[in-house]
Amino acid sequence: MKNKFILIVGLFAATLFLSNCSDKLEIEPNDTVDADEALKTSADVEALLVGAYSALGDGDLLGGNMQRDSELMGDGGEVFWDGTFVEPGEIYAKNMLVTNPQARQTWLDAYAAINICNTVIKNIDLVTEDRTERVEGEAKFIRGLLYFELVKEYGRTWIDGDPSVNLGVPIVTEATTETKVNRSTVEEVYNQLIGDLTDATTLLPETNGFFATKYSAHAILSRVYLMQNNYENAGIQANIVIESGEFSLNQNFSDAFNKTSTAATDRESNGNATSEDVFAIQVTSQDGVNNLNTFFASADFGGRGDILIESYHFSLYEEDDARADMFYDDTYTTKFNNLFGNVPVVRLAEMYLTRAEANFIENTSLGATPIQDINRIRFRAGLLPLTSVSIDDILFERRLELAFEGQQLHDLKRTGRDVGSDPFTYGKLIFPIPQREIIINSDLDQNDAYTN
Amino acid sequence: MNKNLLLTVVWLVCISIPGFGQERIVSGKVTSDDGADAPGVNVLVKGSTTGTSTAADGTYKLSVPEGKNTLVFSFIGYTTVEVEIGARTVIDVSLETDATQLSEVLVVGYGTQLKQDLTGNIAQVKGDDIQGIPVASFDQALQGRAAGVFVESGNGKLGQGMKMRIRGASSVSAGNQPLYVVDGVPITSQSQSSSNADTNPLTDINPNDIESIDILKDASASAIYGSRAANGVVLITTKRGKTGKTNFNLSLISGFSKETNRKEFLNTAQYVELLREAAKYSGEIDYIESRLTRNGAGNPNSWSDPTSPEYVDTNWQDQVFQTGSFNQADLSASGGSEKTKFFASLSYSDQEGILIQNELNRLSGRINLDHQATEKLQFGLNFSLANTTNKRLSDDNAFSTPMQIVALMPMTPVIDPRTGLISGALNNNTGTPNGNYPVYYNPLLDAAYGERTTSVFRNLGTAYASYAIAPSLKFRSEFGYDLLSQHEERYFGKETSRNTGFPNGWATDAWTRVFNYNTNNFLQYSKTLNAIHSIDAIVGMSFQESLRDFTNVEGQQFPSNSYKELVAAASITAGLTRESRFSFLSYFARANYKLKDRYLFGISGRVDGSSRFGAGNKFGFFPAASAGWILSEEGFLADHTIFDFLKLRASYGLTGNAEIGNFASRGLYAGDAGVAGVPGQRPSQLRNDDLRWEQTAQLDIGVDFGFFNNRVSGEIDYYVKKTSDLLLDVNLPATSGFETQIQNIGDLENKGIEFVINTVNTVGEFKWNTSINISRNRNKITNLDGQIIEGDFLSRAVEGEPIGIFYGPKYAGVDPSNGDALYYTVGQDGITTTTNDVNDATLMKVGDPNPDLIAGMTNTFSYKNFDLSILFQGVFGNQVYNGGGKFMTANGDFLDNQSIDQLRRWQNPGDITDVPQARLFGANGTAESSRYVYDAGYIRLKTLTLGYSFPNSVIAKMKLTKAKIYVSSQNLLTFTDYKGWDPEVNSDTYASNINQGLDFYSAPQAKTITFGVNLSF
User: Fold this and answer.
1) In whole angstroms, what is the distance from residue B209 CA to residue B213 CA?
2) Which among A221, B135, B702, B776 could bridge B140 via Cys, Cβ 3.0 to 4.6 Å?
3) Which A residues 52-111 touch B at CB under 8 Å?
4) Strand B359-372 to B377-391 pairing
5) pLDDT per residue as tens digits for the range A59-104
6) Number of Cβ atoms within 10 Å of the Cβ of A245
7) pLDDT band for position B12 (50/70/90)?
8) Contact residues on chain A for B687, CB-CB shorter than 8 A
9) What is the ipTM of this complex?
């Protein structure tokens, strides 16, 4: 009896001992990778860089909502918000609440993407030497582009008051989890992003598949200088893109839209879906999202049909304008009818328009005269050439050519024109700083129009 | 009689006093009141220490010393019987079940305990009490039946997730659901749904297989489950066979159900009046009239001319509510020989919901076996297999969910006269949808052209062996597993493209497999010394590992609706697999000591290690101690006849919470960031090496009492649960690149009091018993490091307040002079004024979804062959936020049909009302605010059952041992002030720890009436 007892207790103890393999508690994730293991090679950092493009193309950023919000907030009777989502409705009504989920999500996603860029730059030493410049250039391009979008959405526009006093957005250029960062001035943010984009123009190659090239950076820079009313530099940047010879206008206006890239990893050539894209967000049936399709296209084309084009807009087109054919049901634009089509960010056509505007204001003819550039755009649209142009003609052409592509609000603001019935300085033509950020960091200042 | 296998307390009293003179040998057989053999019954010679216990077949034999003439038969759970021996040598006895609750046997972790000896707090619900109730899962049947246990089903869709809070929510970001343990195996109880709306894995368990549900509430009861016990533990014990003849039980139930309530919306005339008024204010008359016509299927007569035959007035709720049905058939058999006992069951249930397209059916079988191999060695197994198929509805926030049909305009016809098809279906002539008609996607299209089916195969198995090393020492080893295999199929035809966003059909196919296994190995020691010292102890270990695999494929472009499998999808648009696992390694011990049947002491501890925590904090220790004093055993009270039983008890202990992500402490990267075929990665989580257990310290003080001959008995408990080192998703500034990080920050507490009172009101032919439970829990977040954690709408976690309060602008009604919606604003001088700009409103607490009080009252009556049971359940003092308010109760702000109360809108200067002026697109009062907070306490007639048992004289002829017919209802009556569909609500889209009491087009509960028959033979 006693022996048996000892035997059983011994067995029990053995069971306990055998079970005490504490490695049973060492379980590694399978879906994800430990951060310590994620960045060890050049390929790891380059994959992270692709992650920055993926973040940039998020639906809340340049995957469509940033462009959509510019069109909705900048509207003066050309579009009608017919959707049920509350957050774009508030943007369209130019009456956002500080809790507006879009204001929150744009901010969160943009800084998450910036953090990826910062992490790429921090780990640049891991990258194979012949790729270091390109990788750094791409990270700086994305970072600069995002700061540009952020400062436009959350800060007063450059020509509204004193940009060295007006608050822009917090600047973070280090991969860090340091917590509270306060807002820099609009001027400081512009200096930062111009620095990034300028660096990108020298670091990036001329071709890079469908990823950013030095011309992508020049093109964004031309927009940045336009926002600052720095026409000379805007013209110079646009001219570089045009003269590069890397891009050409599609023969038909409609060919500039609804295209999908084939998975081109060949960086020796331009891998964009059309010869006109200087930079675009890549969408395929399996990756990426086209939120302009979501909001502008009808259900027949996979959208929600939330944004209706008003008859006033149709009335702007001259007879025979090919761009006037880009509508259906008398209601929707066809520009975004491919559920899995790329989202254009900068097209070559814009460079002609920018150069024309800059040359006109500066009274120069860098690359071409304003009238030549405008007629080039008109010719492609199937219109007769003009014999003379005014600044209003140039801006009007720009509106028609770039309609619903996200430039509306900012083009109005930089030229000091009214937005609908509101002056361009109206305080609710910028987003509120998200309430969640102010709760976390009470030193973060809210925009004036959203405080008591 | 051997009603509980785990019950191992067998008293072996040695014959220590040699007899003098003549001894008699007495033998006999003991049976229980249901006729089964009763093994293990203590048989004592009164006034001596001589005794024995009955064998497996209930027989006994003992010698009775000279001069003794009485035998005492006792067994826990049964009334003790004293029998005069007289001249007899054979004495057969039948034991009656003890009606008083104090003699109940409760299941505790790794053992059982007599309620009388308990020093902790455990609520037990018998399987018999919840059988035959027409619910999808047993947890739903617990509503109102246990003090301190708050059960809420978020909506009336079948198979949806349930909320159970035992003594309040103990966490802000980690899980708040209890640990469910079935026959010793912690089962997979978390939703496996791919959509936001949870499913309930407890649905796979046949409620009729359940012998008892024991809810461990205080720390002394639950700490043996250590790191996962802070939210309480629910132990489910399935039925086992008894020695004796084979009993068959057949139960058939059939019934129907309706929604508990409807909400009233505007008819066409009212809608047209309100919307034209709203459009007039906004200068949009042309717009609104064009929309009215468009939505009247293009026919202006549909809304403008009530006399026209083309006038339309659709009540859309009629289109989605249906009479549901409930059918269930159960057949079980149990019995066994001395050595081998079994319980086997087969069950099929089939439910149709109160909303179109919603179905749930379950086919399940079980076999539980016990075998006594030798006197010392026993082993057995449990095996169950269930197949549950749920035809689901889309989430509450989808246009396709049936309840959102109420947003459609009343002049829209159900069938579009232009196409002869459901409004919004493809126009046969053009092959395209009718554009933007009706105003929203018509959910009827989803019912006609889409389906969502979730099918689960669930296999629970356990095997055990128990070896008696010595009379007082046993070793028990258990191995169990829970295998859950789920297949989710969805198909939507091109007719649904307005909702799916995919023009030519869309389907998804997802497989989930969760394999969760567990082993428990422990020694049990039980000994009574000199009838004074009684010791019960266990020590052992446990290991659990759970592995989850998930595969999902999506495709588009189907040739026609005849093809629904992805093999026919011309474009495969997504495919992914995921795999994740976790493990727990634990060591536990417990000792209970009883002195002189009146002083009780308990101590327990568990060392828990989990793969989920950081390297330095993998293990946690969770001890508990408790004591009880049975005053009624004391001499000074024994003379006072008022108390039959009185016990004071107290317990204190630590429990933990580990319901966080499997790799929550790690810094992680995810590889899902590719672009157009080029692979990419992204940081997905910040690391926190210091992450450790969230810890809950709980004090419980209680008293158990019984007086007036135990006609009145009950218990009162006061508890304080303090949780520290909260596992909190801490908000980070976005500039960090992350939204949140899980950190151990913050504290919260739950304090409460619970009353349970059971009374026997009448005895005799007419029997009336009452059981009441009332409990109050106050939850308070004491420290969040100054943060406000946001949920959806106004739901927040705020310091100093209960979790999930509604926090936001306070609605101040309507400005009588201009119809503006007003909100309160508190200036810096502390003076409250009103403003019509909601951005200027001061944010404050405007409601609380946590009830002040929950209660249940059961009355049971029996007279002759009739019995009647009535359960009322009440929830008091809570509020609900209607997240759909800004659409449906928005004074004509947009095109949604409006709730009937919007007719009260302000119209002229001087009007006093709480509904602002109707302004199309005017956002007049539509911001999230207390305007949409409603009182939502309620009292429900939860269950009412009237039964008739056929008399023995009748059924004996039919060779039956029992025959009963009954009619039963669930949710028959609801008393509430709530203005929505049903006050028991939490939207499936949003439900979370913080998001509580949110209504968002949530389906009301079902009101069900069933007819049943029970036959035993």
Assistant:
1) 11
2) B135
3) 53-55, 57, 82, 84, 86, 90, 93, 95, 97-99, 107-108, 110-111
4) antiparallel
5) 999 999 999 999 999 999 999 998 878 899 999 999 898 889 999 9
6) 7
7) very low
8) 35
9) 0.92
